[in-house]
Amino acid sequence: MNKHLLANMTWQEYQSKIKDSILILPIGSTEQHGPHLPLGVDAMLAENMSLAIAEKINAVVAPTVSYGYKSLPASGGGPMFPGTIDLKGATVVSLVSDLLEEFLHDGWKKILMVSCHYENEAFLAEAADLIMRNRTDEFPKILLTNWWDNLDESIMPQIFDEIEFPGWALEHAAITETSMMMHFAPELVREEFIIDEGMEGPPTYQCFPPSPTLIPQSGCLHTARSSTAEKGRLIVGNSTHNIVSFLEKEFFAKVEITD
Amino acid sequence: MNKHLLANMTWQEYQSKIKDSILILPIGSTEQHGPHLPLGVDAMLAENMSLAIAEKINAVVAPTVSYGYKSLPASGGGPMFPGTIDLKGATVVSLVSDLLEEFLHDGWKKILMVSCHYENEAFLAEAADLIMRNRTDEFPKILLTNWWDNLDESIMPQIFDEIEFPGWALEHAAITETSMMMHFAPELVREEFIIDEGMEGPPTYQCFPPSPTLIPQSGCLHTARSSTAEKGRLIVGNSTHNIVSFLEKEFFAKVEITD
Amino acid sequence: MNKHLLANMTWQEYQSKIKDSILILPIGSTEQHGPHLPLGVDAMLAENMSLAIAEKINAVVAPTVSYGYKSLPASGGGPMFPGTIDLKGATVVSLVSDLLEEFLHDGWKKILMVSCHYENEAFLAEAADLIMRNRTDEFPKILLTNWWDNLDESIMPQIFDEIEFPGWALEHAAITETSMMMHFAPELVREEFIIDEGMEGPPTYQCFPPSPTLIPQSGCLHTARSSTAEKGRLIVGNSTHNIVSFLEKEFFAKVEITD
Amino acid sequence: MNKHLLANMTWQEYQSKIKDSILILPIGSTEQHGPHLPLGVDAMLAENMSLAIAEKINAVVAPTVSYGYKSLPASGGGPMFPGTIDLKGATVVSLVSDLLEEFLHDGWKKILMVSCHYENEAFLAEAADLIMRNRTDEFPKILLTNWWDNLDESIMPQIFDEIEFPGWALEHAAITETSMMMHFAPELVREEFIIDEGMEGPPTYQCFPPSPTLIPQSGCLHTARSSTAEKGRLIVGNSTHNIVSFLEKEFFAKVEITD
Amino acid sequence: MNKHLLANMTWQEYQSKIKDSILILPIGSTEQHGPHLPLGVDAMLAENMSLAIAEKINAVVAPTVSYGYKSLPASGGGPMFPGTIDLKGATVVSLVSDLLEEFLHDGWKKILMVSCHYENEAFLAEAADLIMRNRTDEFPKILLTNWWDNLDESIMPQIFDEIEFPGWALEHAAITETSMMMHFAPELVREEFIIDEGMEGPPTYQCFPPSPTLIPQSGCLHTARSSTAEKGRLIVGNSTHNIVSFLEKEFFAKVEITD
Amino acid sequence: MNKHLLANMTWQEYQSKIKDSILILPIGSTEQHGPHLPLGVDAMLAENMSLAIAEKINAVVAPTVSYGYKSLPASGGGPMFPGTIDLKGATVVSLVSDLLEEFLHDGWKKILMVSCHYENEAFLAEAADLIMRNRTDEFPKILLTNWWDNLDESIMPQIFDEIEFPGWALEHAAITETSMMMHFAPELVREEFIIDEGMEGPPTYQCFPPSPTLIPQSGCLHTARSSTAEKGRLIVGNSTHNIVSFLEKEFFAKVEITD
């Protein structure tokens, strides 16, 4: 029984955390991740990253939002893959702004959204802005982040030791996500199905309806070859460290580092 | 690794199930359940009930919708309890109709929604109606159910052996939910905090804003005393059996009972 | 010229009532009620019940909302019957929240919504909650009720003297509604078309699209045989009495009983 | 029991009319009409005009929409008068488009909307356009009209025999509406409170928030002096005649004139 | 470089105007205007009228809203003409209420909307009302106007010297608009394509879908013959003068007339 | 009179282009661009880029959407700057999907959206997806692009000859936009106010409400020093060339290059 999960707490236990703790809302998606990774990758990464952060700062992790904004072809394969279950933009905004409103209503002053699906970001920012736009006090304060923007440049050569970094857009079901899944849930990685397929580079424009030939049939935008659990551990450790660092700065002395 | 969970499947594994299987969407809530049960009860029951059904008919269980429609005072304690995280009606409708639309788009013909939060029902029906209203073919077909409407009258005396059945509205965090949690996740039940408190009967009207004195301070609408894991097993077994029975009827020969 | 109807008052007469009176908003539907009752039953019952209450406490009755939320098969016959004119959930919520907002803006502190269509209830509660959720004062206060939840258990044997009570879901165009119409508007009851048809019991799940064979072709969910104007008078008298009782309690000394 | 009112029909009686009849939807408002007319004027005129038309062509009159779009200061007095119960634009559009959709779904091919509240018109046209925009067949066909655009120029001198016609914007609670109410419901006209007050002319711009000094305190935009039931009869007769004439043209031989 | 255009200012130049100046928002449409006028007429007139006003009172002119509410057949030709690019009512309301909200947020106290497309008006009033309805202070104040309601009766004979005034509804792509375009942008008027075509008079009802035979094939509702740049100058001068007059009254001493 | 502008065409001229031409929709914003550039930069660049493309392929340029999605602090300075006039996400989606729907309705098969405001992109993609998602034919086809994704890597050293490229997020009111404005509209560039200020690097998270100290007071995210009209000409030429190249590919032989 994970003690950081809001879902496991009684309402009285939860209430006792509000004043001094941080609320983390993990947000993922349900989206194809090639023949070797499961559909729940983004939601699983969001929940596990949130728990990794929560363990360091004794935070509360809300139930993961398991469905996210529409997969785009050039960063997730797009809507044509079965198992990619897309929410409309307005739905993501309503869902997340309702949740933020409720957490604020419960009295939370420090909220962190951890999204592990690139396409979510504009809509999560819209949700947060709709709730916070007319507030001028420093707190409550809502932060939105992900793991890829929080990797140090210095660790990139260790991750992309065999394969050249193709840019974040194409790192879908590729080395970073595969390695993180090997670290968090190795039993869900079908290593035998990792293939050496991918796109040349992201297109310089978007097309509607999406081109049926743009994306490799496997759904992989870049190869996952050379992924290891050790690389996953490195990514998680580094990004968690950097996220905790800015939480310290933004949420100040109120954040106690427990490890 | 549960093999019925959509989130654990690759897109190709998922795709292979669509033609002959059933898609189950569990829908819960995040809501106070007294001092002895965690906030995630409704979501956990929805997911576990869905898995129990899936095991019998080899179905696919989509990621659980962990947040639901607003808790009402006389059936869930209402919005004043911390940890009760409510979605607006329009949000529930958008969220669930987006999901149904996507599952239909993937080719599913037989979908079952399992809700374990009473207040969700009108909004889930609205979502399904918006998607299906203008269709006249028998399939695709979407069913919506819960566990409490699927209990045989004959087992009620076994469940309410010490305490008289107070009606379903007040069975919130009471004997049935507590027993089911003892069955599914005993480590999450704080038996030492079960108290003998509750309401006399549901009011004959609703009040806005909700009365601060209507609901017992614990959030329990009726006592959970006399709950047992065995009763939970009985409830789950009986309602699962009855749900599988109507699935056979509605989805006909296509449903193969595997146990 | 009924003196309780808002529509009959000049704005100055209306204005003079706001401080000390109660505003009642009747909400019905336009829905099939079998071969013996007219489509306007729910709206007519809502208006007549509201006037019966208004006569006892000198209240103001706003124009009846004549269209309501979608008829569901197992409680109203569903969308397949001609003359069942359904509003979407979002429309009911917008309509009623606009009205409540306007009445509050005019200065009303005590508002009662009387709905005579079961399917309306979740959406009326949503409308009231959207308007009142962030208010913490005791007043303004909005109450929502119906007649069936306000019948004493003790009068049920008098109403169901020949026919056994089938549960409220199936009491559609059946003994209670038919009797109330015989009491309020006997000229609109086609007694010669009362038939002895109905469903066995409500299903334990909902189906989308609705099954074409679930509902009897007449639209009657249960027989109306044994209906009488006298039973209607009893139902109206008893429920009106109970409604006035809780109005006294909730709206306190401010409610003067005039009969 | 008026035989043209949909609300009075059983669903089978209603169904029998669909193929050959016309469906009329009356749309009014709840709005101040000075010290001498009741708040329900627009809804009452809409219903009575619809019935007058229905009697001539044996049409079906749906339940009146009793609430309408916001009163504007220079044509209805504006929002500051108690008893003026305004719907938002989006609400009017949703409400009326839901209704039109349902009537079309029931099979109606010829629908007439009769609005007696000037401010409704843009939003009724929007609702009809949303439903009909992508249809190219001649039928179903929806018409939208009112009484004032259907008066012959030749009868104006009879109506404005003592008082000069001030333009339609200012004819609010003035001679035409007062005369029509004297004709339809004389018991609701407080003749003793008719006053000789009004505005000079409509302003050439709109102001938000509305100016508190623009509108006479009585709410009358022009005098109702010289109103008579006879003038009301003339207005109703003339506009009904002209409306029936264009119904004949638009709905062709299918309209049978019965008087 | 026009110094009144917001788009040409830096944010610091713009900021320096807010306290003492007036913000003018021009709103047009993209709509057919017959064979002799371009699709941008309404937007061009809105921008040029706004600049003419701004020059007199040293105001700031925001970027023109170039798309407007749906063209109606009897006042603009309707949706069947290519190049008539219609926004839905809800879109116009959202767009303009967002803009007004932002201008108020920047601190503007005096805002004028100048619309040159008749069909916009109800939706612009709705947008302004949604933003201002609950404000009771005199300022901020938003005014909404057009040029045609601001013409003196006395100049009409000069404009309609050869052709009789057909009423404003039919003055679409006719003498007034053509003359104003000859004044503001003569190079865009194809004088050789002015034709002597038009409708008899506006219908007394609206029809959905619009009748394909109601509107002349050219899109002209009335002849533009006898249009001159001189008449355009007269219209612009007269309406600008009257608009500036009421701005003086409504915005009082704060408006400095600079010419 | 620019012959590519839709606004300058009559409806008949416009109609004659639909079959063989391309429709370009320029989308900008109204947003602070430091002390040296005007608020209309993004709209002006969108319109000028669209015209540059149109001249090469004889396309039609629709009226520019002058207001866009909310400015984000780390890519545009954010909402705190006066003159940054933000639309909500839902408004941008409604506006652009209405426009696309209308252009498709007019018969366009090839549409290009040119956005020059980074924050617009997710919402423009959502609008296009809502309109196109259920279409499977190759045409109509809608493309969405910008200038910065269409610059060859090889020209970057020429643009960033003195100043190192800071990444596209910080290139707001910096060298590229300033150079393009010097090329298109030199009279609007206040060269004397170019300052050497900027941010260190974009933050790795977003903060709501935005931090008041994150953005330099001038609104410049990076220095514009070393901007020249020549660099602007280079950027416009190179990106226009690349955009025309993919138009050729996507719209195939139908695109005739005219220069």
From TrEMBL, chains A, B, C, D, E, F:
GO terms under biological process: creatine biosynthetic process; creatinine catabolic process; riboflavin biosynthetic process
Highest rank taxon of the organism: Bacteria
Record's keyword terms, sorted: Hydrolase, Metal-binding, Zinc
Recorded family membership: Belongs to the creatininase superfamily.
Record Pfam families: Creatininase
GO molecular function, one term: creatininase activity
Cofactor(s), by name: Zn(2+)
Protein name in UniProt: Amidase
Source species of the chain: Peribacillus loiseleuriae
Taxonomic lineage: Bacteria, Bacillati, Bacillota, Bacilli, Bacillales
NCBIfam families in the record: creatininase
InterPro entries attached to this UniProt entry: Creatininase, Creatininase-like_sf, Creatininase/forma_Hydrolase
